[in-house]
Amino acid sequence: MNQNDMNNDIDINIPKQPRPKPLRKLTRINSNPSQNNAPVPPQYDIPQQQYHGLHEADPDDNPYERMPQGGYQNWQQDVTNTSGYDDYDDDEYYDDEDTSFSWKDLVIKVLSVAGSLVIIAVLILNMPIIWFHDKRDGTKKNVSLRYYLKNEQFLGYIEGNIDKQKHDPQINTEVVEIDYDDGLDLPQKIEGQFTVLFLGFDEDVCNTDIMWIMEFDIRGGKMNILQIPRDSFMPYYTSSPNGKANSIYNLGRADVQPPIQRVVDAVEESFGIPIDAYITTVCTDVVDIVDLIGGIPMHLEEEIMYEGDKIIPAGDITLNGQQTEWFMRYRYGWLEGDIGRVKNQRRFMAAAMKKLISVVGGGEDNLYKFLYEIYKNKWIATDMSVGDLTKLGDFAGTIELENVFVNMVPGEGSSMDNLYIGPDGNGYSLYSIHKQETIDMLNKYYRPYQRKMLLSDSTIAELYTDHAYGVYDDTGATLDKLERATEPPRDPNK
Questions:
Q1: Fewer beta carbons below 10 Å: N end or C end of the chain?
Q2: Tally of CB atoms within 10 A around 5
Q3: Tens-place pLDDT, residues 291-333
Q4: Any bridge partners for residue 281, and if so which?
Q5: What is the pTM of this model?
Q6: Which 3 state secondary structure label does DSSP give 481?
């Protein structure tokens, strides 16, 4: 028979046999081999694993012992009692405690999410992702959002940007290394020092009755404050017929803008002190600022009657804002008139510095709180950022009072029989600056990183050259001494 005959004999219509049905239930083998008549597998001695560290499983640790009460036993009983896979129920393998709502799990999840968000926020705040134009020194760079918020946020309102390239700071390269960095990252003309011009306006916001130069000697760990009497004769910088320094801001050269630049020019060209920033305020705003920090503790030998019923009692007193304004502006009862007021302001300066150090000592958050209130209420005008002022505040908090020196510009006042006759024909009582004595004082205290100043470097105009009165030629004192100083002499006729 050939192959074809064999194929023809096959019945191709034979019906297919049905597939055997699978077992519906499989009997689970008992976990105990001895009860199933199954051969017991040989036992091997497994070497003990050594525990290496915090994140490696401990071989002596039984995870089932740490399950919820009855968790493992319930699971083992369910498996043992199951006769087949058809009776398998997923829910039977979870303990009721595990499927119930857990506040603990919710709190952990919320905290985890919150922590992740905080980490992301910190990363974003500190990543250099913003192109920043620093208006103070003209530089442009990529900075973090945190840097931008601190340095772009100016306090109060701004008088305008001063020209920092206008005057040569005359840096002494034999003292200041070219690559020296004081670490504060401030927009300064001379690395190692930062100088602020502080002006206090009268209530009409016209005259600057308070004129202080505050030089922070960062490299030397000191601070030098120079008081310029408001009646100082500076005729080259004002159109006022009296030629007084306090009129420069309002009546200075009209072509010099902003007005704050007029005062900066007068200070830098007369005293040779480079100005890095300014702060201005009005006497009425000082009231709010002093109240904000809780007053200034002082001791008064006698009461001060500013006018009428505006009286500051004698003794140990904490000056509130209103009393501070009276104290700072009072001059009628002093024997030396405006110079007596300047001397009295020095005592206040010492007490205020001590109070401010305590404010800074409360921490950066405490300082930020005060700065925010000042900013919100626009109590000062400045070209300094919150970050700049905070850095200076932190530095000032490290200075001891004996390392803060206060000087007044040397000179003498006009006598009643020797008044200055102005171009308008009227006589004025002025304060004539002693030029050589002033330059000597500047070289000693205020130009530690500059070349020695010469007479030809200054535009000071002396009204009286015979120097009949030299009491004010050396007024230097530390805040530590000023804090304990007595008040200026009073006029017995007033």
A1: N
A2: 8
A3: 999 999 999 999 999 988 899 999 999 999 999 999 998 988 8
A4: 200, 380
A5: 0.69
A6: helix
